[in-house]
Amino acid sequence: MNRARIPLRKRLLVRLLIASVLIAVCSVAATAWLAVTTTTRALREEQGQALADDMDILARLSGHAATHPDWRGVQATVRALSAQTGRRIALTTADRTLLADSAPRGTSLPPSAAATVDPLRTDTHTERGAQLSGTDPRVVGPYRLTAAERTQLDALARKRQSCFSHHGIDTTLDRTPGGRPVLRPTDDAVASDHVPEPCADGLLNTPTRTEEKALAALREHARGCLTRQGLDPDTPLALGGVTGMDLRDPTPAPGFLIKGDGASTRAARTCLDDARRAQLDPYVAPVAELFLGGGDNGAAPRWDLSPANKAKVVGAAGLVLAVTVAVTAVVATRLVRPLRALTEAAQQPPDRHARVPVTTRDETGILAEAFNDLAERRERLEAQRKALVSDVAHELRSPLTNIRGWLEVTRDGLVEPDAELLAALHEEALVLQRVIDDLRDLAAADAGTLRLHREPVAADELLAQVAAAHRVAAATAGVTLRTRTDGVPWLDADPVRLRQALGNLVTNAVRHTPPDGTVTLSARRAGGQVVLEVADTGSGIAAEDLPHVFERFWRAEKSRSRRTGGSGLGLPIVRHLMTAHGGTTEAASAPGTGSVFTLRLPAAATPGDG
Q: pTM here?
């Protein structure tokens, strides 16, 4: 009936199925999206890597052309680059005459060339991955320094480097393709053309004999063009201004300016560029066409599913959904079954204390075990509650019955209210007060409102006070009361509550010790604790009764009266008082050999130490 009132959409099985379907759909969609995204990214990265490889091939081949007057020997370079990049590489002249090819002979060329290899009009070396207009700096030609000139310039460079270091500028020594050393600051904040005045001797940047000869030849090449443009053909030339001596930048030397408008300046630049190419042309390989097999299609990668692939994706997604639903249904059914058993057990009347079978060891099984433990504790607490009510009623009824009986017979004139009767009534009132006080202490301990007034307490003084308070009662019972202290251990505790706890133990020990027996109170320090013991030579406690001695209203002999067996609240109060102090309570006993009750409390520093 209860199950029928639960809406279908709120049932755990239905919600688990819906959640599983949603999870499966999201998983399939996410997996597909991830696959497409990852594949697209991989294709783009592969295309970018292919472009980088193409630029590297062009740079390597341009370098060969810049340092060789012809293409002889380039076949080995082409094969090495092909093996490194996995690409087909072919070089031809402008009329498609094959110069070198990594493919077998007879293989047709791609329909179009990927690039033109011309180091006099393309610079692929200065900036990696780019094609700059201008001359490749590796084209040196007649500007290459001799060994003697390099040695001389290296000495000048080291001298200037030392001067720079003296002025707080750290530099590194680079070398141009022509062999000229160049100092470059390691600190980006320092301009590359900055030279401290003491270091500016001009020697390092002065053209060498080889460079002067090459510059003179360059001027001769440019003379006719400069004359036609109406410019001075004898203008001195320099390479790269002052510091770089860069072959790609022949300019009028400092102090010699080309006069005229902007058109004249551009015309002079054109004349110099043409003259430089004409001068360097004999030192470089002829212009060649570069063909690359594969990877030359510039179309962006895209993801396109064929009908067959679409069918595969749909089929796989459907299979995943079916398997997910089936597995979820089985798992959910197994999960719901013990939950229903738990629900039915929880709906049983409280007095039945129903249990559920534990069939699994997963979370549901753990929940079932916890439910059974809860039911067992509830049943035990209910039994304790009933026993407590019965015991409290019994403990209160006996003194109240005695008081009422004596008062009634006195009222009826059957007994005279003499001193002995008043003493008996007073004794009954004290018993009643003691039971009520014990119950109040236990209630405060259960509620967590038991107050402690801590102060430094010497264990020897504490034992002496307890022994003095109970020595008369012990002597009346014929029991010897002794104290023994090992050193002077100190505690941070409530002395009144400690005396109450030890007093309960001593009272209990005296009550169960026969005449001529002994009750010993002892104290010692054990590590960070103070151990208080109350040992007697009484009748002892049976092993099966020992675990119950700290339960409320418990007596080893149920027939024993409260006058000989106590109210059954003293030892529970001792346990609660020790718990409030952060200590523990233990009991050890054997029939016929007496009992030992041990209290362990945190020790305190001796007052005045430290």
A: 0.43
